[in-house]
UniProtKB/TrEMBL annotation:
Lineage, uppermost ranks: Bacteria, Pseudomonadati, Bacteroidota, Cytophagia, Cytophagales
Species of provenance: Sporocytophaga myxococcoides
UniProt-recorded name of the protein: Chorismate-utilising enzyme C-terminal domain-containing protein
UniProt domain Chorismate-utilising enzyme C-terminal: residue ranges: 118-370
Domain of life from the UniProt record: Bacteria
InterPro entries cross-referenced by the UniProt entry: ADC_synthase (IPR005801), Chorismate_C (IPR015890)
Length: 382
């Protein structure tokens, strides 16, 4: 699989590698088309690996990596669904056989960027004032920080380490000619539909560092954290209500662990066989994205505030990604706990839900903890 990934990466093809939570098998999809594959987001989308940036009005910016090549590590055969033109086929084969190593760079483990963290703190303070003036109920603000890449950094080997470290996350390594290379281990499901037509989504919010040995049922949450997560649950219920779907089941909130952090999570399920919405998956992605776990409530003003006030473009961070209609299953995740690799540098991203009771220094610390999910693995490469 490393050879398949590396050949695609070196040729600048769109490629996605992923592993589902709790499973051992890893899948890869390679798309031979040399253009951006923006898709009409509806039930005729076909199969592949979905990619969406955070800012995606009417989902018109959604990209599908098509399975010209599909391989799952539990099978022996590579599925070739579409043979590229002969020049591309030859160069692909050459790169596949002549495995080359990765770019060189310098890793700096120091990251005392005072200006960037100060800007984030100021931003949170301003947002709290806006919330107290009742402009929003909740807004998720984020930051990004860069470091140099370690020399000889190999994304695929790094990805395998990430899978080992986070067996219960959805891990992915995606490289796209225009969107760059992204690696992540997210705990946040956006939507899934299983083979037997069970739809699922979750409300994930509130964060605590998982230090010391603490049993999940002994974690104590404050009123602020309970309310912050309840806002996300209510947002999901309102999405169901807006299409008059009442036949959902919910379970939670309960404490879950994601790497070095605890969160509160409520699970929602719908048996699609029992409701008049065969296209529930598509409807719900349109309604849910971006959820108030990564954007805010009410959605439009929160979105506008984020695009105006955050000092950088989130790109794929807090967008969504995952396999759609592969082996009759779909699982699309929110792209958090991720990093972007580009020209000798790595960028880390993290956000925190701000409510009227937020304290800026605590929210900054929370984003540091979240970045640590990926950053700690880079620090350990030395
Ligand atoms: C935005 C992130 O995480 C989201 C925000 C959370 C929070 O505000 O407590 C918790 C989980 C995620 O829904 C992130 O990891 O960057």
């Amino acid at each position: 699989m490393e050879r398949l990934f590396t050949a695609s990466f070196n040729l600048g093809l769109a490629v996605a590698v992923w592993k589902e939570p709790g499973r051992d098998d890893v899948s890869i999809i390679i798309d031979f088309s040399e253009t951006l594959n923006k898709v009409q987001f509806n039930e005729n989308i076909g199969s592949g690996f979905l990619l969406s940036p955070f800012i995606n009005p009417d989902l018109k910016e959604t990209i599908l990596i098509r399975p010209d090549i599909y391989f799952n590590s539990s099978e022996s055969e590579i599925q070739v669904n579409n043979i590229p033109n002969s020049t591309l086929a030859d160069t692909f084969e050459y790169h596949y056989n002549e495995f080359t190593s990765f770019h060189q760079g310098k890793y700096s483990s120091k990251n005392s960027n005072k200006k960037e963290t100060q800007e984030f703190t100021n931003l949170v303070e301003k947002a709290v004032e806006e919330i107290q003036k009742e402009k929003f109920k909740k807004i998720v603000l984020s930051r990004s920080k860069e470091k140099g890449l370690p020399s000889g950094f190999n994304p695929f080997q790094f990805y395998l380490q990430l899978c080992q470290k986070h067996p219960l996350a959805f891990t992915s390594l995606v490289s796209h000619p225009t969107l760059g290379t992204w690696i992540g281990a997210t705990p946040e499901l956006l939507v899934s539909v299983s083979k037997d037509n069970i739809f699922k989504t979750i409300a994930l919010a509130a964060t605590k560092p998982a230090t010391g040995i603490q049993k999940l049922n002994e974690v104590v949450w404050t009123q602020k954290e309970i309310e912050e997560q309840a806002i996300v649950s209510r947002y999901i219920i309102n999405c169901f209500k807006s299409i008059r779907l009442r036949e959902y089941e919910d379970e939670g909130p309960r404490t879950v662990q994601a790497g070095n952090l605890f969160h509160l999570r409520t699970d929602f399920t719908v048996n699609i066989n029992e409701v008049p919405f065969p296209d529930l998956l598509y409807r719900m992605i349109k309604l849910l994205h971006p959820t108030s776990a990564v954007c805010g409530t009410p959605k439009e003003p929160a979105m506008n505030y984020i695009t105006e006030m955050e000092k950088y473009d989130r790109e794929l961070f807090t967008g969504f990604l995952g396999p759609i209609n592969i082996n009759n299953e779909t699982s699309v995740y929110v792209n958090i706990r991720c990093c972007k690799i580009q020209s000798g540098k790595v960028s880390f991203f993290a956000g925190a839900g701000i409510t009227k009771d937020s304290v800026a220094a605590n929210e900054l610390e929370e984003t540091n903890h979240k970045m640590y999910t990926l950053e700690s693995l880079f620090d350990n490469l030395h």
